[in-house]
Amino acid sequence: INAANMKGTQDSQVLNQAVSHVMSNDVSVTQAPQEPRLIADAGTASRLTGFPVKLLADQTPSALFFESGEGAQMRLDRDRLQSILDEAGRGDLQIPDSVDGAIVGIRIPAGILALYGDCGNRAARIQGQVQANGQVEEGDATCVSLLELPSPEVSAPQQLNPGPIAQVALQFFGMSPNDAANFTQTVDWTTTLVLPVARGESTYEQLPVNGNEGVLLRGKGPKASAAYYTLMWVDNGIVYCVNGTGDDTAALSVASQLE
Q: Which listed residue, 83, 190, 199, 208, has the most CB atoms within 10 A of its CB?
């Protein structure tokens, strides 16, 4: 993402109203999320989620949460979506007519969130025991969080071709028309998750993680910690996301301890 392309649009009241209008009128919740629930161990987590949960070997989480799944359906309105592009100053990008009326379903399966080390009052915040405007206690460098869940599922009508839609989105977020067209042809959009990385605000690196291709993300800028990382990978249909503090070796070491 080229963040400079988005400047001037986030403060646009008309644009914000357009996005809100699309979301509020066209989304129906098929599975409402429940409040995260504290659980005891990996066995309980595996029973509740339906997949074999992995935790860090020889370490006890300071908190282990079960997070219920959620789902929603959206009926796409081509004219409304086009209005968002128009209000953002990108009327040159045209949403395909095939989008109109298509119903897209999104399902996020149940998963777990494990916290290790001193993570401040994060566990209390997750349980709603800290007010929204209350003080955030970040903990220290020992804090590691592990998120695990099966890959989210997206369903759409067979006649809906995601390629042209993705091409429009890529141009909206900063790609040239030629680059967007070439990139779109190399990706299977029905099975691929794209991570939006803001150019100049974060670094992105692909590297092997436990025999799979993973992604290491680090923030940049005056407020970002150079040592803080996010490591993501998929193994046998399960998405893993580890957040912590340290160098690349430390991130890969945490991932290697899962069992």
A: 83
